[in-house]
Specification:
The chain is mainly alpha-helical. It has helices at about 5-20, 30-45, 50-70, 75-85, 90-100. About 5% of the residues are buried.
């Protein structure tokens, strides 16, 4: 999964959830669209989704370089340990991106 695909997946999920919660309130479609757009934009900015995706993707090559330069590094061990604990989409950004490049 690419960083752009991850960001779009988060955005779509957030929008879908907001639509489901706002629809029963009896608002017009334009009002729902406006609220969903504003809330999604704000949530994406506050949560740092784009930055998170960029860091997850960028960490892989650093870990690869560290594997070559210092395979016993505590930083590399920590990276691997964290990688085992994160959920699917972030894990894909951390590891799958690199396997596609190889």
């Amino acid at each position: 999964m690419s960083a752009d695909a991850f960001i779009e997946q988060v955005r779509t999920s957030l929008r879908r959830s907001l639509f489901q919660r706002l629809r029963p309130l009896g608002l017009s479609q334009d009002e729902v669209n406006r609220l969903v757009s504003q809330a999604t934009t704000r949530a994406m900015a506050l949560s740092g989704v784009q930055e998170l995706a960029a860091v997850a993707v960028a960490a892989g090559p650093v870990a690869d370089a560290l594997q070559t330069a210092a395979p016993d590094s505590p930083a590399l061990a920590n990276y691997r340990n964290i990688g085992e604990q994160v959920r699917g989409p972030i894990r894909q950004l951390m590891f799958d991106e690199r396997s596609e490049e190889v």
